[in-house]
């Protein structure tokens, strides 16, 4: 007779672990973060440097500084123009809309590196990256083809416009040799004024030792004036050093 098979032993059930009472649970603040056992609040950037502390929640950021020339316009120039031209609404007062600085680089036709130097100098003067200007049509006498880069330009608005205007009239123009003021005949009939500068080294931002070639530039002040009389009075009150008319 075959041996009777022994009955299989029943698997013993594992005792269930008793749940710990809630009172013994650790608070969340004492829980350790992964990777080194540091709390989340003490996490650092790679390389062992601490992350810079940001502004506190609910703390207001300091207000941006208003350019002094804009403040001068709002406090003195605007009331004076309203009285001079008898405007009824402050929005009728002509304002300075933008300043366009254009630098032509004819040498770029033979050496493109001259254009790179002009772009770097104009960016240093204005604090804004210039845009490259290209020829609109071909001119055989100048060996110029359509689309070739021939200069660079910057358009300034807002605070940068006021800061550039301030540095121009108070720092750069007085450094011109035998400076006696800027001419008043360069208005275009619509209140816009264009000023020609023959040397870029009058700006203190330019290092004379690193200048490859002396270049000039055209600076156009675009206003919202309707005629030259309003535009001239606006720039005069904003301290533009116009040349006195000779009797």
From TrEMBL:
One Pfam family it belongs to: Ribosomal_L5_C
Region (Disordered): 1-68
Domain called Large ribosomal subunit protein uL5 C-terminal: residue spans: 149-242
Molecular function as annotated in GO: rRNA binding; structural constituent of ribosome; tRNA binding
Basic and acidic residues: compositionally biased ranges: 1-49
GO BP: any one term: translation
Segments forming domain Large ribosomal subunit protein uL5 N-terminal: 89-145
Biased composition, class Low complexity, residue ranges: 50-63
One Gene Ontology CC term in the entry: ribosome
InterPro entries per record: Ribosomal_uL5, Ribosomal_uL5_bac-type, Ribosomal_uL5_C, Ribosomal_uL5_dom_sf, Ribosomal_uL5_N
Keywords from the UniProt entry: Ribonucleoprotein, Ribosomal protein, RNA-binding, rRNA-binding, tRNA-binding
Assembly, per entry: Part of the 50S ribosomal subunit; part of the 5S rRNA/L5/L18/L25 subcomplex. Contacts the 5S rRNA and the P site tRNA. Forms a bridge to the 30S subunit in the 70S ribosome.
Alphabetical list of PANTHER family matching this protein: 60S RIBOSOMAL PROTEIN L11-RELATED
Function: This is 1 of the proteins that bind and probably mediate the attachment of the 5S RNA into the large ribosomal subunit, where it forms part of the central protuberance. In the 70S ribosome it contacts protein S13 of the 30S subunit (bridge B1b), connecting the 2 subunits; this bridge is implicated in subunit movement. Contacts the P site tRNA; the 5S rRNA and some of its associated proteins might help stabilize positioning of ribosome-bound tRNAs.
Family per similarity comment: Belongs to the universal ribosomal protein uL5 family.
Protein name, entry field: Large ribosomal subunit protein uL5
Source organism of the structure: Eiseniibacteriota bacterium
